[in-house]
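Can't attach files on this board, so I'm pasting raw text. These are the components:
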Amino acid sequence: MDDLEKRVVDLVAEVLVDVKKENIQLNSKIMEDLGAESLDIYDMIALLEDEFSLEITDEQVEKIQTVQDVADFIREHRKAS
Amino acid sequence: MQHKVVITGMGMVTCLATGVAANWEAVTAGRSGIGPITLFDASRFATRIAGEVKADFDPVGHVSQKELRRMDRFQQFALVAAGEAMQESGLTWPPEHPYRWGVVLGSGMGGLETIENAVASCISKGPRSIHPLVIPKAVINLGAAMLSIKYGFKGPNMGIVNACTSGTSAIGEAFRFVREGRADVVLTGGSEAVVTKLSVSAFNALRALSTRNDEPEKASRPFDRDRDGFVISEGAGILVLESEEHAIQRGAEIHGVIAGYGATDDAYHFVMPDPDGEGAYWAMRYALEDAAVDPSLIEYINAHGTSTDLNDKMETLAIKKLFNRAAQKVSISSTKSMTGHMIGAAGAVEAIFSVMALKTGVIPPTINLDNPDPECDLDYTPNKAASREVRWALSNSFAFGGQNASLVLQRHG
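---
Top answer:
Structure tokens for the assembled complex are below.
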């Protein structure tokens, strides 16, 4: 895991009250595997937007499934900006 | 059939300490919890002092850091105080009959800090900056809901919003649920986190707060002639109420009995109390009638005693009117002289202090009572705790809005 991916794992762990950090893998599906509900996702998006100064639309959120997707999205979006 | 209502668990968070034992030690020693405001930069405020809950208010780890992150401060206090009360009650959860267990929690302003921050963010960064948890953190009934989620209580559940009377009103309504047999167990009390920019500036605009900024520990001085307003503070008090038969059946330790509750409104003014104390008088009188106890039997009154000019005179007058000659024999104190005024949590914390007076035979003092106001001429237990056997106590709360509530507490056994 690179630094960005580690940071994303930290943020996901911060949001999901019942999930231990060591159980979060890059290929973990945030809803199916980690049990996130929709409010958790919006909570996480708010943290990501704040930390990485980006805006994620609801359409873009729907395409994000795994922890890796989150990291990739941020990397891509940061490059573009 | 009416059930006798007993208290089997108590917990609190105040500016003095976390936990009932540490708080009781502090108030009977006459310590003040008031200090300079650190939660925000108060340098431009008329009032720069308050009773702030210290950062480490969850020393036993009742609530995980992750849980805390999702809650406003008033919900955090409630959860920590409830953790202590539940642990002490010996109840196990989730309950076997969850629909027989309820929650009634008072708070005057709920997630005020969450609202303040969200408004600032909405104006400066725009509507997209608002965090999805603003509503659940802000709304007042979520305090009660958080407790039901944590412990699996599925019975009657409500938030009580009665400004400074919220905590006492909540306990009174919870008492009725248990007495009437609509619940076996009710988690109740009050929680408040209003040491915020908006609240301090708004109470300053009403000229309600003490501005004795250079002597924070002397600022809350109920019944003293040099008092200059109340000192705002924060915290929570939570009690486990239970029907006596339910408590006995499971072998629970009983701390005290709630024997009566009276509630009225002044119908007089939106922030000033009726100077004749009529509403306060009737709240106390109804509470005593509810408990079927004669005023002459009351040995201790935990006064509302805010340290405002109007309240302390009015409350004194109301006590004299109700107790007549017996008024001079009652031990009275305002623990707000040490804790400050926790608004919606005040009545709950003070009900617990009243129970502790019943249990221990110690009357906590009113500190900073150096020169009594000539119009306040009762025994307010000035500056030093007193020893006295207490079988019956009264705990008063009076609100902006004129809501008055009074509880009669009885020693168990």
